[in-house]
Amino acid sequence: MVATSEVRTLSNERRVNRVEFTGGSIQSRVLAATLRNTVRPAINIWALAPHLPWPYQAVDHLGRLLRLTRGTTHRSVSLPNCSAEITRPENVLSDRHVIYMHGGAFIVGGRYLHRQLISKLAASLHSEVLAVDYRMLPKHTITDGVEDCVDAYRYALAQGVPPEKIAFMGDSAGAYLVFMTALVAREQGLPMPGAIVSMAPVVDLDLFVKLDAPSARTDALFTQRFALAFHGFVMRRCAEPETRRLPIDEDLTGLSPSLIQVSSTELLYPDAELMANELAKAGVPHQLQVWHNQIHVFQAAASIVPEAARALVEVTQFVEATFAANARQQTA
């Protein structure tokens, strides 16, 4: 597996820190083919009638079938408007804490679906991970979910965890939440977290850019039909502009150092590039990691796909390096 670095200069002389990783292992190809023939048809069925009362909560329980990292334990905590779960590995370092915001298109996920990925992150980072079971569509708005994630941040701060030792992490819809949670927390007078890690973030509702990109034709999970149906679903349930704020429309100046991971062959690839460009314009320390020929949120397959395992190593190294830099600044 080879990583190549590239720095792209924007018109205002700000630079995108971009690193590319080769992919296409046998394991990743088998996984992509399996999902293309199983999960993708199910997603397309939803796209035919997204207005139906689908059993969204039942999807979360599929996560019960996944094996967790040995030695991790779980306990529930209560937040003002939702619950959360703390995952604790066998060995915990006191200089780091993670708040995880799960993906699932703002409609599925919760306690179980992302447990395997979260347990791997907890073990890799030797950190407790607070996973937020935030309110979701269609009963609630995206803004409600952001508020729940801010409440989780307040909870961590109230436990005495210094903000510079907290990392926000999330995938897909949750990767949208990590950015918006940091921005809304700042609006409410809270300090920035120490680091942000986003896996395949949703940051723009403009479908044309995504559907015109070559990655729209190579995504193993999401089709044009799904993209159009999901866009309409969100717009109907978040009709007021304030209920669907976008990170790219916000002032990103002063945001926490950020790592973005994305596959070059997934529908959300343009969003990741766009967010990296906006971070660069705002002068935010960042890195855009482009992993070739992977599925959406491939990191969840770290137990079987070598590129996914390497990606989690990169996450760990980014958080450790960023927190070490934060500590040096605190003592300077």
Could you characterize the architecture of this molecule?
With 332 residues, the protein is α/β, with parallel strands linked by helices. It has a single domain (3-331), classed as Rossmann fold, CATH 3.40.50.1820. Helices cover 39% and strands 18% of the residues. It contains ten helices and ten strands. The protein has a ten-stranded mixed beta sheet, with helices on both faces. α4 links the parallel β5 (97-101) and β6. α4 packs across α10 (306-331) and α5 crosses α6 (173-187). The longest helix has 26 residues, at 306-331. The chain starts with a strand and ends with a helix.
Short synopsis of the structure:
By secondary structure, the protein is an alpha/beta fold. It has one domain (3-331): Alpha/Beta hydrolase fold, catalytic domain (Rossmann fold), CATH 3.40.50.
